[in-house]
């Protein structure tokens, strides 16, 4: 008995598809029946998790809850076509799907709800993300890749609506790349490019630009991607008619529907969330199109219900009328599924067969309640034990201090009155006790201090680890290899150095690819990739549409699947279009999974001191503040840039590398060891030694600072010039402080706005490196005006620091301390 035959009897499957999950299953009716009942069981377990999860929040045992009730059936259907090696990039209501693909247990669901920091109990995020944010672990404990083809994969969820979409594009495109690209170890990431990337999104979030940009790009690239839209008719309280031009997203997307014979567009399938049979058919067809034809598919799941409303922060009764609420109660997917099961019968060899009786389904319902309650109990007790163990290890040490300060007993009394204790309460007690006994040197206090530092280090790891890589492949571990020059080394344009270095990179690393606006056919706008597409093909050196958010997304997704993408954002100003993805997604990948996933994409861009408001801005402060977790590398020339690419391709961290726009036509000596030399991250370079003042800068401004330093020499001021090179990480050896110790004066020069990057640099030097101890004058920052730079060379001169500005302001420092030797200029 084929399952397809059984389903065809009831018009569930009517297409002969060789590769779909359902078509290829040869099973008995008993097995078919068992699968249906297992789906019902999982659906009921998921629903009970939602019900109990809400109660746990409302009784104060958890902070917030957002659940997947109402979406059980479509997620069960989607899970049936989700195979090993496939990836999901999704929405935080997919708990039933996560259960069905064994990426979630009842215990881990509640562990996340309670914010349990134990990675074994809460493997998705180790308590760092609120509930409903799912992830599988792509990495071993040492940061090396697991075999992703041997497991079902979920890329770590994020909350920003539609923020998961750009990454989805890259996850899907990786399959297309792997059809043609193999390298040592690639078998861990793909089996001939046969994998699908599944995306899920709430209907209201399709109003976001990221949704449209991603779907547009997927239709152009023709990648194996299935996007499920959970359509419940609302975006929290706002009805669909107020979200988009058309209430029906399928109607809006009709222009994306592919035409026969054309290699563009997508397939669109609309299906009801409560129709189990139709859902199985819809996802079987979607899988066929995506897996066998590499076509993107939209599965628009309509008539979705939300039995408990949007979240625990409110009630949907506030904005849904009685008619709607009544309809939702009637068309609840699990209720309809139950009806379908009870009404199902088929005659096989003269005997009527049914799936289950009312009593049997009631028994499953009861079992689901017990399973969920038992799992919740285990999760709560495990979570509480962590706090109890902490309390029992440290509170007796606080009690030992009672005789040293009268307030200690009061603190302990207040602590004991707490109905529910959290780690913060324990730490608050300890810190109050240590504050109260300051100045006391006793064995008891020292014992408490020692214990405090011990447990604090544990919590520091629990809450603050893995913002950057902690593996052996972290960028700071990459050894420096200096450029090698000889008598035969040529003087060439800077663009030639970076171009020829890319040639060596593509030859050396078959997993490396680059893509961006104008990056392919013409070899980028500054010819840094000239001839590379012709030599390495359109797949590895590719043009993209004008769509920065999804250029970044391509990079994130492909890097999550073992490729080494270089995502090119044409100008530094344009990085604002993908800053949300950098900040919310890329920068947090390792952190929000506590080292469970990584995405070592390199963002290539160019900027600094060109011409005009939108081609010479310096949004560095925004990048620094919003993208902690991404390395920020600012080479002063193209040889340094080439060295940074060589470094980062040996590392497992994401980075943005800003090439100097005005350096492509400047002459540089080309190293003989292209593709091999590296520039260390987190290390400064002293480019001019001096004894009177330390000038700190980076990027294209360095050339102007060098010009100013030479002018200052003529005025009797010996300036030491330091090129930062790497903003994140910043001067790990604290060499700048050593320079200030020698010169006793500090000037930070930057083309960003006042209080921008210069404030960050100053804080790092003066506070973190404690260089304030060596200053004989106030530290000085010389920054750009707060407006965008005006057009042309005069615009640059009057908008950003010029050599004249630098000379005059630095000279004024010396005039203040010795006006006789340095008389005032003005």
UniProtKB/TrEMBL annotation:
Which cofactor names does the annotation list? thiamine diphosphate
Arranged from A to Z, the UniProt key words for this protein are: Oxidoreductase, Pyruvate, Thiamine pyrophosphate
Q: What does this protein do?
A: E1 component of the 2-oxoglutarate dehydrogenase (OGDH) complex which catalyzes the decarboxylation of 2-oxoglutarate, the first step in the conversion of 2-oxoglutarate to succinyl-CoA and CO(2).
Q: What is this protein called?
A: Pyruvate/2-oxoglutarate/acetoin dehydrogenase E1 component
- Positions of the Transketolase-like pyrimidine-binding domain: 492-666
Q: Where is the signal peptide?
A: none
Xref: InterPro entries:
DH_E1 (IPR001017), THDP-binding (IPR029061), Transketo_C/PFOR_II (IPR009014), Transketolase-like_Pyr-bd (IPR005475), Transketolase_C (IPR033248)
Q: Which Pfam families match?
A: E1_dh, Transket_pyr, Transketolase_C
């Amino acid at each position: 008995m084929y399952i397809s035959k059984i389903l065809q009897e009831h018009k569930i499957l009517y297409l002969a598809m060789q590769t779909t999950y359902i078509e290829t299953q040869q099973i008995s009716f008993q097995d078919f029946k068992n699968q249906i009942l297992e789906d019902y069981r999982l659906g009921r377990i998921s629903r009970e998790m939602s019900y109990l999860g809400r109660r746990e929040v409302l009784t104060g045992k958890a902070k917030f809850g957002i659940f997947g009730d109402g979406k059980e059936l479509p997620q069960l259907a989607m899970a049936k076509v989700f195979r090993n090696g496939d990836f999901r990039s999704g929405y935080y209501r997919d708990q039933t799907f996560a259960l069905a693909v064994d990426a979630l247990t009842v215990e881990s669901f509640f562990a996340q709800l309670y914010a349990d920091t134990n990675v074994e109990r809460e493997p998705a995020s180790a308590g760092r993300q609120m509930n409903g944010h799912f992830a599988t672990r792509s990495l071993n404990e040492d940061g090396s890749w697991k075999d992703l083809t041997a497991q079902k994969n979920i890329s770590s969820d994020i909350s920003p609506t539609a923020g998961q979409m750009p990454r989805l594009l890259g996850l899907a495109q990786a399959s297309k790349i792997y059809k043609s690209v193999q390298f040592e170890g690639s078998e861990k990431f793909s089996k001939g490019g046969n994998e699908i990337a599944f995306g899920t999104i709430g209907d209201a979030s399709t109003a976001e630009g990221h949704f449209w940009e991603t779907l547009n790009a997927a239709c152009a690239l023709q990648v194996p991607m299935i996007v499920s839209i959970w359509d419940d008719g609302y975006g929290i309280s706002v009805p669909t008619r107020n979200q988009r031009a058309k209430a029906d997203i399928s109607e809006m997307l009709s222009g994306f529907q592919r035409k026969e014979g054309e290699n563009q567009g997508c397939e669109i399938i609309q299906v009801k969330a409560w129709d189990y049979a139709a859902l199985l058919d819809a996802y079987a067809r979607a899988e066929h199109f995506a897996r066998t034809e590499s076509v993107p598919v939209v599965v628009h799941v309509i008539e979705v219900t939300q039995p408990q409303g949007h979240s625990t922060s409110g009630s949907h009764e506030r904005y849904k009328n009685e008619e709607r609420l009544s309809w939702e109660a009637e068309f609840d997917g699990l209720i309809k599924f139950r009806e379908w099961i009870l009404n199902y019968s088929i005659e096989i060899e003269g005997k009527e067969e049914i799936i289950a009786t009312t009593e049997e389904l009631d028994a499953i319902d009861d079992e689901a309640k017990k399973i969920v309650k038992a799992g919740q109990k285990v999760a709560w007790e495990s979570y509480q034990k962590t706090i109890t163990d902490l309390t029992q290890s440290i509170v007796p040490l606080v009690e030992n201090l009672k005789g040293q300060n009268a307030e200690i007993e009061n603190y302990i009394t207040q602590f004991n009155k707490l109905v529910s204790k959290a780690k913060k309460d324990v730490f608050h007690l300890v810190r109050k006790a240590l504050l109260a006994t300051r100045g006391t040197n006793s064995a008891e206090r020292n014992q408490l201090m020692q214990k405090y530092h011990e447990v604090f280090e544990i919590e520091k790891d629990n809450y603050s680890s893995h913002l950057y890589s902690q593996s052996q492949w972290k960028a700071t571990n990459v050894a420096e290899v200096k450029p090698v020059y000889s008598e035969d080394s040529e003087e060439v344009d800077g663009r030639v150095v970076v171009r020829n270095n890319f040639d060596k990179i593509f030859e050396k690393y078959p997993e490396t690819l680059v893509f961006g606006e104008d990056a392919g056919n013409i070899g980028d706008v500054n010819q840094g990739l000239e001839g590379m597409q012709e030599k390495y093909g359109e797949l590895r050196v590719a043009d993209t549409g004008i769509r920065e958010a999804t250029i970044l997304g391509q990079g994130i997704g492909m890097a999550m699947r073992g490729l080494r993408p270089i995502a090119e954002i044409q100008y530094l100003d344009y990085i604002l279009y993908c800053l949300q993805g950098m900040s919310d997604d890329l920068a947090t990948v390792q952190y929000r999974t506590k080292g469970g996933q990584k995405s070592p994409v390199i963002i290539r861009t160019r900027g600094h001191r060109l011409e005009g408001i939108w081609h010479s801005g310096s949004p560095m402060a925004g990048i620094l503040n919003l993208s902690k977790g991404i390395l920020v590398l600012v080479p002063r020339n193209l040889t340094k840039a080439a060295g940074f690419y060589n470094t980062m391709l040996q590392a497992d961290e994401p980075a943005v590398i800003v090439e100097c726009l005005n350096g492509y036509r400047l002459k540089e000596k080309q190293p003989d060891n292209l593709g091999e030399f590296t520039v260390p991250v987190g290390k400064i370079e002293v480019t001019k030694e001096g004894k009177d003042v330390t000038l700190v800068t980076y990027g294209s401004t360095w050339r102007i600072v060098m010009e100013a330093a030479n002018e200052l020499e003529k005025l009797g001021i010996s300036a030491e010039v330091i090129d930062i090179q790497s903003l994140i990480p910043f001067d790990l050896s604290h060499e700048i402080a050593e320079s200030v110790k020698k010169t006793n004066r500090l000037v930070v020069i930057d083309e960003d706005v006042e209080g921008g990057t210069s404030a960050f640099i100053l804080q790092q030097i003066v506070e973190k490196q404690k260089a304030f101890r060596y200053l004989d004058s106030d530290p000085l920052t010389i920054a750009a005006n707060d407006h965008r730079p005006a057009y042309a060379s005069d615009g640059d001169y009057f908008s950003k620091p010029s050599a004249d500005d630098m000379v005059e302001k630095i000279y004024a420092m010396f005039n203040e301390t010795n006006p006789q030797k340095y008389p005032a200029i003005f």
